[in-house]
Amino acid sequence: MYRNYIVKILIVILLVLTTLLPYESNVNAAEELATINVDILNIRKGPGLSFDVVKKATRGEKYPILERKNDWLMVQLPGGSTGWLAAWLIKEDISGEEKVTNLPTKVASTVDWLRVRSGPGTSFQIIGHLNKGQEVEFIAKNENWVKVLLNKKEGWVSAEYLSTIVGNSEKQNNQKPVQNTTKITGKVTATILNVRDQASLQGKIVSKLKKDDEVKIVGERENWLEISINQVRAWVSSEFIEITESIVQPQPEAPEDEEKEDQPDSNDDKNDNPIPKEKVSAVVTASILNVRDQGSLSGKVIDKVAKGDIVQILQENSQWCEVELSNNKTGWVASWYLEKSEKSQLPSTPVENSDTSSKVKILHSGSNIRSGPSTGTDVVMRANEGDTFIILAVEGDWFKIELPNKQEGYIAGWIVETSGSNIPNIEKPGMNQYFKNKTIVIDPGHGGRDSGAIGVKGTLEKDMTLRTSKLLFDKLKASEANVILTRSSDVYVSLRSRVSLSHYRNADAFISVHYDSVNDRSVRGITSYFYKTALDAPLAAAIQNEMIKHTKLRDRGHRFGNYHVLRDNKQPSVLLELGYISNSTEELTIISGNFQENISNGIYYGLAQYFKNK
């Protein structure tokens, strides 16, 4: 009996000591955190709505995840107790993931007259400019764009033309993600190979290559390869190219195509001796067009002009035009990026005025000033980017302004920047008008332990789906949509949870983002899947059409697909396969920042078209 008494005492002592030790076993074992993603969330005794509520959590609170059961998570509560919460109402974070450090507090423009836009893309309205060296507060970034604070207003700037300032140290930052990727090069096998402006024998010949010339391959379509030659994108027949590969050093590259987004105009010294020739006006149709010192792709780039700029054609030679720019410089540009005007209309120079009256500043060269407040009225002159005019009155969405000859004219309010008191900023309704009050759930496929497909060069589908989804998220958020990501980091989310979130949020559109892979490495292209013909097919058709238009990849159409996130989804839903990472050339295209920008734009515009037609 005495022996049993001693054993009981020892057991009691052990129990007491256990309660005195810090509780850490369950906490330290948890590898994931649940972050509450709604204002108030009930935490229950068990995994279901029928269980009693043990605690009410508020938005932003974090709890270690201990166990999963269907769409419910067991979490660790303060004091050592546990509870269950609905998985579709939280965000999951890996507690041990590497934290981002040394984020810049400010960024500075590396060029003059850098456009600041209302959203991350060239389709968003210009709301201001940065001059070289001008610093603004850093807010956030994605791979192509940086969100900044300019004059107490949020805006987006092309990341390529910013340097970052962290504390007292400044470092050049081209902002695009640094990756060890593989580039593909090729060698010409034909004696002479035509280089064309599009992937077709009907394309215009813009240059010629000789046997054994080396080219950099940046894309592929059908039997054609897209190449970069002298900073211009063009096309050659794949039949006459022998593919070779080499490793790219992990550093960002300079822009390579004529239509790179948001590249600012050059500010080189003006040429004081322009050649007097008969002038014909033309409008630039490319986003950015190189001006060269001779009429060929081998000519040195001496300046750049932007879409909408007015140039004066001096002479034409084959596929090239010698032009005079607004700064009186002359040079050569590719003629297929010019649209001739019926007659020349040279912009006038605004009068200098020291008065403090409210003014407008022109944001685009070639902006029309009209005789009345309507696009149907006559153009009385065209203004250059940076020109300023005194505001006389506001009539609807138009400003009545004083012209240099003391006459009056009208300028559309959405293409200017205003200064002065009580002057409204006027924004033309664009595609963003169709997103207001719309709820869109973006579902980056796979994640966590589910890597999805693996590309030829090791690209993980789960990484690419998240990368594309975040870019799309920023564009939709800037358009005032209510946007939700089913996952925002590398975590696993069940298919049921993804669908439940769509239902809980009453989504106007559910977009599941994926990349494709098959054993046949020659297969390529983009596909959109729907399940419910009446509800989903219009959404799939609209997005598919815009994605092909923006990326030029092979169109595999929109078709029926029996997928869980579509089949069990009561909301309009689509599953997108955005290209084949099992195709080495298409994989190279997919991982490029240029493609990511284009594909996110395609989905964005497809959604806009869908909502517009509803």
Describe this structure in words.
The chain has 614 residues and is α+β, with helices and mostly antiparallel strands. It folds into six domains: 23-94, Roll (SH3 type barrels); 106-172, SH3 Domains (SH3 type barrels, Roll), CATH 2.30.30.40; 182-247, SH3 type barrels, CATH 2.30.30; 280-340, SH3 type barrels (Roll); 359-428, SH3 Domains (SH3 type barrels); 433-613, Zn-dependent exopeptidases (Aminopeptidase, 3-Layer(aba) Sandwich). The chain contains eight helices and 42 strands. The chain has a six-stranded antiparallel β-sheet, with no helix packed on it. Strand 27 (320-324) and strand 28 form a beta hairpin. Helix 3 crosses helix 8 and helix 5 runs antiparallel to helix 8 (593-613). The N and C termini lie far apart (85 Å).
Domain count: the total is 6
N→C terminal distance = 85 Å
CATH class of the largest domain: Alpha Beta
For this structure, the CATH topology of the largest domain is Aminopeptidase
Q: Please describe the biggest sheet, giving its number of strands, its sense, and whether it closes into a barrel.
A: 6 strands, antiparallel
InterPro entries: Cell_Wall_Dynamics_Protein (IPR052354), MurNAc-LAA_cat (IPR002508), N-acetylmuramoyl-L-ala_amidase (IPR017293), SH3-like_bac-type (IPR003646), SH3-like_dom_sf (IPR036028)
Keywords: Cell wall biogenesis/degradation, Hydrolase
Domain SH3b: 31-93, 104-166, 183-245, 279-342, 355-419
Biased composition (Basic and acidic residues): 267-277
